[in-house]
Model the fold of this input.
Amino acid sequence: MLGHHVRLHVSQSAMKTSRIVVGVDGSPGSHRALAWALQEGARRQSMVDIVTVVPSEGERSSPPTDPETTLADAVASAQGLTPDSAPPMRTQVATGTPADVLTRLAADADMLVVASHATTGIRREALGSTSEWCTRFATCPVVVIPKAFDPTTRRRPSPPPT
Done:
């Protein structure tokens, strides 16, 4: 029908809060992923859940680092690269396999953000790729931040002149 308009009123409590889950492990790549997630969270006005995963006892290949320090360092590093209007954030430490924990925690999120790591050889065969697992099994969109991503410009650096 032309000229027919319907007004829809939705209360704030009925609206779903947008949420982004990002995994951090203390690596420079995860700091870039967090910076991207915070920038995107500010743009979307989304809650950003920052998660670090402590491997279970049988999955540890080295002594565990303090997860609270990992989170604090990642947030401090990323906040210097984000807009002044940072989105609301929550931090969480979880135990298990990183890919499994992140996909489970992001089950009802709007997106999951992870870093790509250049893991190759025996380590990749034994452990698999967290980002690859997440892209295959997450029930929400997954953003994989490449190693060459520059969070200050939100793009890859220009290639060197030839």
